[in-house]
What does this fold into?
Amino acid sequence: MWLTKNGYEIHHLLKGRSNSFLVVKNNKAILADTGRSSKRKTLTQRIDQFENLTIVALVLTHAHFDHAENAAYVKERYHVPIFIHKDEAGYLKKGENPPVRGSFFLTKFLTSFWETKIKDRFRYEPADYDFVVDDRFDLDILGLNCYLLHTPGHSQGSMSLIVDDEVAIVGDAMFGVIKKLIYPPFAEDPGQMVKSWGKLLNTGCNIFLPGHGTQNRRELIESQYKKFKSKSSHVF
It folds into this structure.
């Protein structure tokens, strides 16, 4: 669990295949991503451990199956509005994955052959969204010091949840699986993804929580941003 200076708690609900986080303040909560359907029971059990808690928003960092597979279920169970970027709202409504592209040679090779099969195999239950995000969406309307920021690259409609100007929940804008390396194996537009790292650094956050793996500190993001920004091609 992470705690900001103003008392915002960020709980790590799901780990392993895909992360899910719950931001809690004064009995209000924002759920960020929902994980795979195989983790549905674990997700709901961990949410239900909180007493007198109202989930006021379900934020989907993007519409890939491993982040959105439980969205429809969560929406119905907790009567919670879904926030998603406008470029991926249509995918969520159809239960389809946005394009999957490799970000270096091996994963580019694999996705060039398997993208259609991935798209068809990993369809999920469609969900109706309630709010669409453009470049920025302030969540002060919910009484919380949080906002959503468009951070494209992994997918066109990827976005991040900025909590109390200290912690960024970033989805797949970066990875936390390999020590000292945040570059993910899949990105629709790697160059745009690196630009999003700069955008995230401009938030002033010190902790960055990815959709896969463990937290990344600001110092690592700064060094990785400098490294990949200077490359003429953001491909391994």
